[in-house]
């Protein structure tokens, strides 16, 4: 009669072992500061005639610490264009729809900050950061160049072979030999861009700056 009892004890032991092993092998919960960007509004003016948007030139005052309040960057002023990848992703997302005079606290996980970058003893790798950012001013950003209009010299809303050739000369791109000649370059451009093969690149067909020459 001892065997069944031993078998039962062995079964219970194995079951407990599986449970303990399963608990040990669970992926630990992600640190709260790594889950995502956290935005806190510390101060907001009563009147807000204009909110920040992508393409705006923003002037801000900010400082930066680790989550334990260890200083990383001293208080500074900075101007940049929102939406142009001039700042970290945490700022790109965290400073949208902001009013002049508004103060925000941004808790930025490393994936939206400086990643695995290390700067001396101040910025360890994969460090979540806390920014206090005050928006001082909003201005219209610089308009993006319209390459299509620059090439379309006669304004007929389509690009001809001659117009592209003139643009290459205007931009000072040398007319080399072989694969570097304007003839070969333009043929390649039209091969890729002129979808209906009518000898012109329409505004619809034009996909922006696909080539260094355009």
Automatic annotation (TrEMBL):
E.C. number: 5.2.1.8
Species assigned in the record: Nematostella vectensis (Starlet sea anemone)
Pfam families noted in UniProt: EF-hand_7, FKBP_C
EF-hand domain span: 146-174, 181-214
InterPro entries hit by this protein: EF-hand-dom_pair, EF_Hand_1_Ca_BS, EF_hand_dom, PPIase_dom_sf, PPIase_FKBP, PPIase_FKBP_dom
Name by which UniProt lists this protein: peptidylprolyl isomerase
Record GO terms (molecular function): calcium ion binding; peptidyl-prolyl cis-trans isomerase activity
PANTHER family xrefs: PEPTIDYL-PROLYL CIS-TRANS ISOMERASE FKBP7/14 (PTHR46222), PEPTIDYLPROLYL ISOMERASE (PTHR46222:SF3)
Ranges for domain PPIase FKBP-type: 55-139
GO cellular-component term (any): endoplasmic reticulum
Signal peptide start and end residues: 1-22
Keyword Transferase among record annotations: no
Gene3D superfamilies, per the entry: 3.10.50.40, EF-hand
């Amino acid at each position: 009669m001892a065997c069944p009892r031993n078998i039962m004890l062995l079964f219970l032991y194995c079951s407990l072992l599986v449970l303990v092993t399963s608990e040990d092998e669970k992926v630990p919960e992600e640190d709260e500061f790594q889950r995502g960007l956290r935005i806190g509004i510390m101060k907001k003016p009563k009147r807000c005639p204009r909110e920040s948007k992508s393409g705006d030139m923003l002037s801000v005052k900010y400082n930066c610490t680790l989550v334990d309040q260890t200083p990383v960057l001293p208080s500074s002023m900075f101007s940049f264009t929102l939406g142009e990848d001039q700042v970290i992703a945490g700022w790109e997302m965290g400073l949208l729809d902001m009013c002049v005079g508004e103060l925000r606290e941004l808790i930025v996980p490393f994936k939206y900050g400086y990643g695995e970058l290390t700067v001396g003893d101040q910025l360890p790798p994969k460090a979540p950061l806390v920014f206090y950012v005050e928006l001082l001013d909003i201005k219209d950003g610089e308009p993006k160049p319209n390459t299509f209009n620059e090439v379309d010299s006669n304004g007929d809303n389509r690009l001809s072979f001659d117009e592209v050739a003139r643009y290459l000369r205007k931009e000072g791109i040398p007319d080399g030999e072989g694969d570097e000649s304007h003839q070969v370059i333009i043929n390649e451009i039209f091969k890729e861009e002129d979808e209906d093969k009518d000898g012109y690149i329409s505004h619809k067909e034009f996909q922006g700056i696909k080539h260094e020459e355009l």
